[in-house]
Structures are given as structure tokens and as C-alpha cells.
Amino acid sequence: MADKTLLKNGIVLTLDKKVGNFHQADVLIEGAKIAAVAPNLIAEGAEVIDASDMIVMPGFVDTHRHVWEGILRNIATDIPLEGEAGYRSLILSTLAPAFRPEDAYVGNLVGLYGAIDAGITTILDWSHIQATREHGDAVIKALQESGMRAVFAYGYPAWKAPDENQDKWIREIAKQYFASKDQLLTFAVAPQGPEFTAFDVAKAQWTLARELDVRISVHVGVGMAGKLGKLAEMGKARLLKDDTTYIHCTTLSDDELQMITDTGGTISLSAPTEMLMGHGMPPIQKFLDCGLRPSLSVDAETNAPNDMFTQMRAVNSLQKGLVFEKKLARKSGIPAFLAAREVLEFATIEGARANGLLDKTGTLTPDKQADIIMLRTDRPNILPVNDPVSAVTWGMDTSNVDSVFVAGKALKRNGQLLNVDLNRLMQQAYQSRDYVVSKSGFKLPEI
Length: 447
Ligand SMILES: [Zn+2]
Description:
Radius of gyration: 21 Å
Structural class: alpha/beta
Shape: globular
Bound molecules: zinc ion
Helix content: 25-40%
Number of helices: 14
Distance between the termini: 57 Å
Mean pLDDT: 96
Strand content: 15-25%
């Protein structure tokens, strides 16, 4: 018989419209799955966890993060994407080439434990640090050790043109680690995208992903590059399909957004980095007007904080600000305001959909995997809870994350990460950070 855990008497937000939300209910975990959600469940032999001061909900889903950048946290908050001292030059062309496999491993560990601590149960690791085959092994080892549900999205190295090794390694990695789709780690390809390479190269990278039957995650509509109509060329060549997540889309044309909609693509919005770094205004309203529901993503910890609370608030504030601006200007055709519930869905359900994992995670639905978080409601930053959905979307932060379960396994309990030696992690992080910074010749910012 599978292990059973009963989360008792919590405020339960299943986010599944058929199952409903509850002011008080229990969630039964059996093995890796959610067995039942209802008030007053009886489960003989189950370990009972008191959730009476908790909101119980699906774990957050991040659909695009360059996790290897974990050791470069906050190193570049005041620099733009482009230009001589910009992100592409500093992070991707100066610091990234200095990463050894062990540095990518440590960067990933730091990023992943930070994500778990913040209540994220699924992450897409957009890993464009693949200088050697060993970098791939190192990063995958960190993903495995973390216990998270993750999509390893193989990215071509960001600082040089890809060579024939990349495709060979992609095939090898797919075979060695991802022969089954029924595991915590799944595979995707993160091509350079048509704005950053020639059409034929972009096409070949997408074709390889499809040959391997894995999803594609691609940056498009990035600053001025997005104004060149490159995605439209891919669309006209009938290369856009429902297996692709389009990141940013900030400067795509209306026609290109329509192509994404028509072909069933999914979206990943990283509103804080898009605004901080000059990708262009996050097109949240354009998405909504097209019927596209975005997922959310941290993108780069060099700039943005590592949690989904920030993401939700950035998108919700921005959309409301833009609508109010129209109202104040007495314009016609005022769009509807985004509700807190919709934004919570972006951070969970839409994330699961964009990562190709909606059948496994994103809602607390019986028979789905038990990817569950418990958020404390007895803290001074949130009590009394008057509207649980808004409490999560607007009031809480990572200090409320009490427990995190992935596939029924506890990764955080009572506010503490499990299975990690934080002193050792800190040592590894500083050692790798020091090596990479020194090797690259970069100087840390003055204070
Ligand atoms: Zn990115």
C-alpha cells in the first residue's frame, strides 16, 4: 500500500473549477498522487498534518529561468539587455564562458533550492550554458538532486555560434536521461530563435526538437530584434505549432501574436525583467485580447527576485495600470480588469500547460501528482485572511511558504528546506562565484 499523508482542515484552493475551492477541507496524498480532496476525509494509517492555519494549493510553476545564473544573483539589476555594459555582453559573453561544469551545477543548486523555498514545485530550466557535454550532465545532476519537477530545456551556448556538437549532445542527452516521459524530469529544446540566428539554423533546431518529440521554448519579440518580423517568417513556413512556448513576445507584431494564437502556442511572460532590461512593454493586454493566457517566469536572477509572488503582482499591477490609463484618457473599448484569481492561474495552471505538464500538475485534482504547497495564514503579514485568493496573490510572500511537496515527497516542512546542507551550499556558492568572477575578469559592483 502506498504511503498516505492527510493534510487536515486547511483552506484548500484546488484551482480546479470542477473540484472547487474550500474554506475548510482535507487533501489526501497517496504515494506520488493526490487521492482525494474533500471536507472530513478519513484515511486510516495516514500521517496527519494539521493544515488549520494554512492555505493548501498547487505549487507554483516557473516556465523559463536560466537556473545556472543562480550564483550571479542581483549582479546586474541596473543594466539593460543590450549595449556594451548590458546583460548580453556582461552575463552571456563575459561571465557565462567562465563557468566550469561544477559552477553550472552549483548555480543550478542555488537556484533550485531558492525556488523550492519560494513554493515553486515545477521549473523549466532554460539552460544556455552548454559549453561541453559535461555541463549538461552537471546541470541535470543538480535537477535530479533537488527533487523538483523540472523541464530541462537544452540551450545552445549563448556566447558563441553553435557547432555540430550541440545536436549530437542533444540526442545523447535525450537518450541517456529522458527515455521515459513519465518521470520528474522531462526534456525540451531551447533553440536560439529566429531573431538571433539565421532562418535555416532556427528551422533546423526546431526540426530537431520535433524529431525528438519534445517541446520547444524560445525567446521572441526581444527588444529591437523582435521588430524584424522573424517570427512571421517562421509562421509563413508553417513552423509554428502547439508544442512551443514563446517567451517575452514584447515587440512582436499583432499578426505574429495572432499566428501564435492560431497555432495553439503558449506564452511565458517575465514582466519584471522585461521592464527592468528593456525588452519592451510586457504585452499582457495584447495577449488577453487575443485570448492568450500567459504563464509566468523569473527568467534571470541576475536581475529579478526568485519567487512567483513578485511575478503575479507585477503582471496584475501593470494590466490594471494600463487599463486605468485608458479610462483616464476617456478612451473607448476599455478592457476588463484582470482578477486576482486569473493571475493565480497564470502562476499555476498556465505554467503547467506551457511546460507540457497539465495532466500532472497545476491544480489539486485527484489523480494528478501531489505537487502541493502549504502557506501559513497565522503570520502577522497576512492575518486575518478575508479572501484566500487575494491573500496569496497580493498579501503573501516567501515567508508564508511552510511546506512544499513534489510528487508526494516533502521538500520543505515547517518553514525549513529538507535534504539540503545549507552551510555546504553556501560554501559551494561562494567558491564558484569567486572562481567565475575572477576567471572572467569581471569586478563585482562597488557599494
Ligand atoms: Zn530568458
